[in-house]
Amino acid sequence: MAEILPIKAWRYHENLREQIEDLTSPLFDVVSTKQREALYNNPLNSIHISVPLGDDPAMAAANCLVQWKKDGILVQDRIPGIYVYYQYFRLPGHEGESCRKGFVAQIKAYDWDENIVLRHESTIAKAVNDRVDLLEATKIQPSATHGLYEDPLFSLEAYMDKAIEDPIYDLEDYQGVREVMATIQDAKVISEFLKVINDKQIILADGHHRYEGAIAYRKSMREANPHHTGNESYNFHMMYFTNALSKNLKILPTHRVFMGFRMEEEELLERISEFFFVKKLNDVEEIEELILQKKWAFGLVIGEHAYKIRLYQEHIDEMPPSIPEVVKNLDLMVLHYFLIDRILGIPLEQQRFSDQIAYERNLGRCIFKTISGEASFAVITKDISMNQVLEVCKSGHTMPQKSTYFYPKTLSGLLFASVEESEFEFPYQIFQP
Q1: Complete DSSP assignment for 350-367
Q2: What is the CA radius of gyration of the chain?
Q3: pLDDT tens per residue, range 260-316
């Protein structure tokens, strides 16, 4: 089902290998303002390609890329490879170190209706458009999206474990995560990766905006090419693959921050209490613990005040029949329908376009934004389980935007995958199983 290929990757020159920690950057949708300011000060940091500055950011990235290639800052591998990518991390409250194992390859940018790459959440329109503009201008992908496949035999792990013993990169990233990358260029081994993935569906864990951008780019290029075969460079997209059955897949919650709502605290609480039980908390730091074990429960932060809110059971059947059963009972669907649609007046179908809703993973930043007045209020959410993600994906339906935060995030700048035909060409048939 899923056709993948190794990548003729562009990478930072070997002379810059010891500096790689200072050349990588967070993904475009998680990099903070302070991080951006620091990273932009390094003229060779990958953020100049992934999140460019200027009146015409896409063109600025394209010009930067041309110069880096000319100066030998970036050099393309002559032989395609599968890039093994391990991330070693710890989570608060968990003993020991976890390791998320995966590999980076390129996959065809399948349309959603082909049912090969499955999505689980809606996107934000502006973010997709920005990714399309950047891809059209640069013809390069500075970061891999994250896809999941299901292999109960863990058939590829032995190959990956062997390869990671001889890494090309070993660094600590901005999250405090140890990032280790190695490459496999043996054609017989690569063919095993292609064979395992060939009969799989891929669940898109992270990178919905970048993947939708790749679909849009492929469609525009196909329409302009009367000799389209499906094997051209523009058909492919760089992705990081991990086994969905691994115990080291971690999903963290993404909270909702609301701006521009001109209503007093008492009015907001009165509106919310029509659908939700409301309890004031003594300490905002209690929120995450108090909502953890409760269905349809959320934290609410208004200024310096914190509340626990929980949907009254009798309201759940008020959801319209257009909302499918597989997502109807999910916490985030409850939040987006009852609080954002019914109470705040932003219809479900318009929420992905709204500039009054922001998404923030860090509880401390949510609290700061409400206390400082930058935000009207914030809603604190819980994580979603891997089983719920798989169930929604396989149903063909989607959850609200930013429903999941797979941790740790991958990095931009370790690899760059070109969709320029002259840089993509290779007799890939030698890798076919």
Answers
A1: GGGG-SSEEEE--HHHHH
A2: 22
A3: 998 899 999 999 999 999 999 987 777 877 776 788 999 999 998 999 999 999 999
- Between the CA atoms of 366, 368, 174 and 145, what dihedral angle is there, to the nearest 10 degrees? 30
164-172, long-range: CB within 8 Å, 24+ apart, which pairs?
A: 164/84, 164/86, 168/11, 168/17, 169/17, 169/20, 169/414, 171/20, 171/21, 171/24, 172/21
Q: Could you tell me which residues are beta bridge partners of residue 171? A: 179
Rounded to an integer, what distance in angstroms lies between the CA atom of residue 359 and that of residue 363?
A: 11
**DSSP conformation class of 285:** G
Helix, coil or strand: residue 121: strand
| Helix 57-71 and helix 125-138, axial crossing angle in degrees, nearest 10 | 40
The Cα 32–Cα 122 span in angstroms is 22
Question: Per-residue pLDDT tens for 68-102?
Answer: 999 999 999 999 999 999 999 987 666 788 999 99
List domains and CATH numbers for the chain.
4-249+407-431 (no CATH), 254-382 (3.30.1760)
Beta carbons of 80 and 7 less than 8 angstroms apart: yes
Kind and range of the H or E run holding 198: helix 187-198
Which tokens in the block code for residue 124?
A: 């934000």
Which residue matches tokens 């460019």? 52
Q: Is the dihedral of CA 13, 14, 16, 20 positive or negative?
A: positive
d(CA 384, CA 104): 25
At 17, list the tokens: 């290998």
Q: E strand or H helix at 68, and its extent?
A: helix 57-71
**DSSP 8-class letter at 396:** T
Structure tokens at 108: 């065809």
The secondary structure of 304-327 as a DSSP string is: TEEEEEEE-GGGGGGS-TTS-HHH
User: 């891809």: which residue's tokens?
Assistant: 135
Q: Is 222 helix (H, G, I), strand (E, B) or coil?
A: helix
Residue 200 · residue 149 · CB < 8 Å = yes
11 closest CA partner among 69, 57, 61: 69
- Give the long-range contacts of residues 429-432, CB within 8 A, separation 24 or more: 430/187, 431/5, 431/6, 431/80, 431/187, 431/190, 431/191, 431/194, 432/191, 432/194
Give the Cβ contact number of residue 355 at 10 Å: 9
| C-alpha angle 25-108-226 in degrees, rounded to nearest 5 | 120
Cβ contacts of residue 311 below 8 Å, gap of 6+?
275, 276, 277, 296, 297, 334, 338
Q: CA end-to-end span of the chain, whole Å?
A: 14
